[in-house]
Batch of 4 targets.
Target 1
Amino acid sequence: MSKFCSLLGTLCIVSAVVASPGEDHFEREFGVYTSCTKSNQIALTFDDGPWINLRGISDAFTNADAKATFFWNGNNFDCIYDQDRVSDIQYTYSAGHQIGSHTWSHANLTILSKDQIVDGLYRMEEAFAKILGVLPNIMRPPYGSTNGTVESISFSRGQNVVLWDQNTGDADDATVEFSKGVYDTVANDHLSNALILEHETHNTTANDLVPYAINLFQSRGYQLVTFAECVGAQPYRATGRPQERDSSWTCNGTPAPGRGCGGNIPCKSGLVPPPRH
Ligand SMILES: *[C@@H]1O[C@H](CO)[C@@H](O)[C@H](O)[C@H]1NC(C)=O
Ligand SMILES: *[C@@H]1O[C@H](CO)[C@@H](O)[C@H](O)[C@H]1NC(C)=O
Ligand SMILES: *[C@@H]1O[C@H](CO)[C@@H](O)[C@H](O)[C@H]1NC(C)=O
Ligand SMILES: [Zn+2]
């Protein structure tokens, strides 16, 4: 694996060979992103779902002819296989918003073993293949907590590591006024672009911040786009058909929120096969 980091430090490109069962080895470039690259584009990103606010956020963007990006957990605020969450996920994906992984259980990856990190990514790939028939090519480490081990595991599984350059602080108990001020500063300073962190699990984010941000940025002439669009990348590693629900669509016997695999929860590994067309 070879590694090159730009002088600006915003993007490290790493060449990694990704092997998928049934496919030839293919070489792609993966990196750690902390910002968008296109001008006049803003990517609003929502972590920690799927949760009850998802459909409303999806609709707010869709109705404004805008796109959002979601980084989901498997077992955090809710179980990703809950029937309501499954239908909200399929609804949001169908609306053209971008989907990424936030790991299975929202554990701090830099205190996990390699096997536990792999497990946290594997279980999300499996869930996305089952529910949507896609393999995302982006992951966001919980808390933005990452290091070289986390990154090389992510790259080897075909996933870029995506952080942010603007933080609304909504998960850190910032007030709504503070978070709006983050948006105001981006617009008033005429920043060329922004990659902004929000959380769909906060009601005030869904109810107050989303309409405020959409209105503000569009009125100032920004386009609200997916992460993939604002960096000029493909949104998915593979796309195909969702699967039928079966007894494997469960969070029972999987790592609990904040925890890694191990003990009586076996660590899963390997590469999830690309979904069939
Ligand atoms: C995650 O673990 C690192 C140690 O690798 C620690 O410095 C950091 O504070 C932890 N983050 C959280 C949110 O617990
Ligand atoms: C990342 O953090 C883990 C846990 O602290 C540590 O074992 C590993 O060596 C770190 N990797 C790098 C490349 O620093
Ligand atoms: C968020 O909203 C839901 C329903 O609208 C409500 O049930 C829940 O208690 C609210 N959460 C908080 C933390 O206020
Ligand atoms: Zn998170």
Target 2
Amino acid sequence: MNNKIKIPIAKPYLDDSDKKIISSVLDSDFLSGGPYLKKFEEKFAEFIKTPFSCAVSSGTAGLHLAVKALGIGPGDEVITSPFSFIASSNCILYEKAKPIFVDIDEDTFNINPEKIEMAITEKTKAILVPHIFGQAAEMDKIMSIAQKHRLMVIEDACESLGALYRKIPVGSFGNVGVFAFYPNKQMTTGEGGMVVTNSQKVDRLCKSLRNQGRSKGDKWLESKILGYNYRLDEMSAALGISQLKKLNWMIKERRKIANLYNKELSVAKGIKIPHIALNRTHTWFVYVIKIFNGKRDLIMKRLSAKGVQTRNYLPVIHLQPFMQKMFGYKHGSFPIAEKISRETLALPMFIGLQKEAIKYICDEIKKN
Ligand SMILES: *Cc1c(COP(=O)(O)O)cnc(C)c1O
């Protein structure tokens, strides 16, 4: 990508209320562990409709805590999707458990529930479900498989904040749900994440683990367990509060952009626009099209030459060099995910992306 980017793929939406609340933190004496942290957690739990929430320093940190707090460890297997951001498998490896991949649904790009049961063994402890690109996985089927086999469920909702499945927010189905607030997500805190749960025990454990294994009521600097520094600072927590206030509006704006793309691309030759499955809402972390006839990379290059940044979301996890080395995965191990990975292209998606820019991007794509 040596050409100057005129239209980036993503951009955070920040306004005066965001600047104001951050500067109010700077005027106080609490830059960490202050009142905004607690308020952000409370407001977020209200939004997702879970009783407990624990703010952390990133989505990846949140996923690690989720795996750890559920007691998953060496020798355990966790079923997950190869078509996700690498963090959703790395968090399993951090605890020396093994990710067991299951191929995906061709239309939603989420884990295919029909293939989960075949992958269950006596070592399986949990299903880690990524909700990809802003749309929920098929939670009814996944939850009933989990119940039948007494497996725990971790939802990686880092790409799908605000998405609903049968009107229920993602992140609230499983034992634990994890969200991320990196600047390209639906809302941002700079870096940051959130772990939500229905279990007070899991919540307490996460809050202790994020703070060097210290618990409320412990003596200062007494660690009962091995912990980490996964705390979210007060500036980030404050930004989380002001971002969360406008989250529903921001999702609506993203939806408008997706609709404009849909209009331009729905009849384009060799292109398939995103599919929204039954009983689901989409919150558009990214707008991803499928490009057939092998022209994905060519179109990507042409867009780049026109100053339009795109991404080949997502490369499959099992073919990442270190994964191949560790587990011996080959091309063809998960054919649907690999095929989708060759065909998909993420187009610019951010609030403020103008109708004219969308037309400019789509015209270039339609030259096909
Ligand atoms: C963004 C993301 C994460 C977490 O990312 P951080 O950069 O650690 O906040 C985890 N899983 C998925 C699927 C993601 O898209």
Target 3
Amino acid sequence: MMDMPEHFHTGQGELRIDLNAISNNYLWLKSLAEPATCSAVVKANAYGLGLDQVAPALKNAGCQVFFIATLAEGVRLRQLLADIDIYILNGLMPEQAALFTEFNLMPVLNDLAQVRAWVAHCRLNQQQYPAAIHLDTGMNRLGLSAKEVEALLPNVGMLEAMQVKYWMSHLACSTESSNPMNAEQLTRFTALLEQLPPAPASLSNSAGILLGKSYHFDLVRPGLALYGGNPWDQPAPLSPVVRLLAPILQVREVKSPATIGYDATYKVEKPMRVAAIAAGYADGFGSFFSNRGYAMIDGEKAPFLGRVSMDSMMLDVTHIPVDKTRPGTRVELIGPQHTINTGANTAGILSYEMLTGLGARYRKIYLEASCHVRE
Ligand SMILES: *Cc1c(COP(=O)(O)O)cnc(C)c1O
């Protein structure tokens, strides 16, 4: 967009993304995982924060291996960064093998048919193209089932046609450190690795990294923790990455009896001051935030009132001084004291959803290592 004066943005929410904090989080996770390699999961536009800015920042922090969900995302990442390893988590769909090779992308092969298709592609081109192979150990989402592994074993010689970069699996309950399913999956994964041809292995997402060394294998795959979301059931020294501010659009005095917002779900019982702010369900504050959650204004909580609208929602600012709530004042929806995790908990959603749902309409401002601000 052409250069606009600062006041052009006064009525718009602002998402501040600290790329330096993402690098710090990467380096912390890497130090926990060492000697295993630490990759970065950047699917869904780097969890909503902007692949174009986040991926180069991670690469500058030393990350060489990236996981992303779709082929289209992978092509975009390849166009940004030429010399990194990129794995496509959603796997190899029919007819796509040549495209993977064209863009130097590696599939995570999720079933036996995908393994066979990749082997056939390698044989056709007489090249040992690399790929990861995903073994299901209890998630029942993606990956070769136990039955498929059984069918693979007598034909395991075919894997010589390709390069198995990683045997991979994924934990279902890693956010609960004491859940017995973690150890069960670890045992199942280890048993499978013993039967299969030797290759590096990868099991843990962010939360899995904290389960201990035995969960690290050769490569870990954090996503959420890079972006400051805490997936653990305990505090962690993560740097906050996201700050979300939205301006007050209008303030009104409301007398009782009255109601606020669509469907009149909030009943006013005493005189109140109510502020409308520029963030709604199109900006990641879904209806689960209706009458739940709050913004911070000058260190005070301003609770959400009524149904969230598409482009706005209302706050109770009765207790906040008038000069702190003038139209144009920015209120904090996510910040260091009011994190992705606390916001998600209040609404009863996942911190992952909160982050990826933030949407495309905010003015995104990237803070970089040098404190240089770039849009
Ligand atoms: C999304 C994903 C990750 C990253 O998970 P986080 O919990 O965000 O760290 C790792 N591995 C796989 C297979 C994934 O789908």
Target 4
Amino acid sequence: MTAHVLPDTSSASGRRFGAAELERLAEVIESGCLNRAMGGTQTANFEQEFADLIGAEHCVAASSGTAALHLAVAAVNPNPGDEIITTGLTDAGTLLPILSQNAIPVFADVEPDSGNLDPESVRSKITERTRAIMVVHLMGVPAKVEELREIADEHGILLIEDAAQAYLTRTRSGRWAGTVGHIGCFSLQQSKHISTGDGGLTVTDDPALARHMRLFMDKAWPRDTGERTHLFLGLNYRMTELAAAVGRAQLGRLEQVVADRKASAERMLTVVNSIEGLSGADPEGTSWWNFPVFVDRRDGRPDAFAWSEALKAHGLYTAPGYIRMPLYRTPLIAEAKTYGSSGFPIADVLDSYAEGSCPVTEELITHGGLFIVMWNENYTDEDLDFIAGALRAAAADLGVPGEVPCP
Ligand SMILES: *Cc1c(COP(=O)(O)O)cnc(C)c1O
């Protein structure tokens, strides 16, 4: 028996690149200008097209999703030692810009049925030094950004939405993820809904934040004034014209990519939700970057590690916990591996990152409460049957009672 191979985002099997991308790339090559600061027009057009698509006033492109998040934190302009509240259940790209701007990451806990920040936990972490909240729409499941925006406004701080996994995710108020907070950030890395290999986008309705981010992205060099000077500490996070060309073509595919992911994920949801101890995410507004499965391991039921092993035996590879440990338990934070041997700016608050500090985060990551099934816009009926079959076989192996239906 040959193993069933699912489409995946690391190859053409699970990506939609084609003639539209090639055509735009040819335009750039033929123009002879691959750089936006020296006259290229693709990146500026890409920014405008993305802003129009999600209904934001301003968009600034950058070289990665992490860079996009760095623009956002730079726009918060924290003093060293100011605090930014975020989640320990996310890609490191959410966290790194906080430390890069010398701010202290403060971890709030998440909700057990989504893995997204719990607004009450966020509220309990606010201090006089809090400058911003960075929320993640994990796997494309909408976070409670309306509540978080209220909390932010109450305290006069900024809400940054990390929507790297949440293109065309609908939040509860009916807005696109990334447009409820003061700033929204997206990634165009290879595995995201749409891709330029690497790349990032930030959006905002605030012209002052937009200007700060645009400057930070380009050495804080105010090219619009014609003056060669540097207004503050910035970096070179420019997107190349080649990436922007691909991005513009990818935008044309986004709606269908999300529609296809939704259709297949919602079919799989009926399968997963029928299995004792497993539940999928609320599909309302979800754009399914990947497919999270929440595991109730109480009363001796199998945990996510057991499920993951059993599924692997039937050819389906999953990621228990999504990441290996909460971000606050990685050496970067737990051992303050930041600047030289200074431990700055977290050396004095290491106790706040101890094991046990965010119990729900740890239940999901460390204790087997969550596993992730990779999702893809190119899944066929056969692919869905294969995934359901692996779940059925794993359930049987694990002695989980009940019938597992077809997708
Ligand atoms: C992918 C991702 C990032 C980082 O994006 P890169 O483009 O890889 O730098 C940040 N946050 C989340 C939630 C992500 O999924």
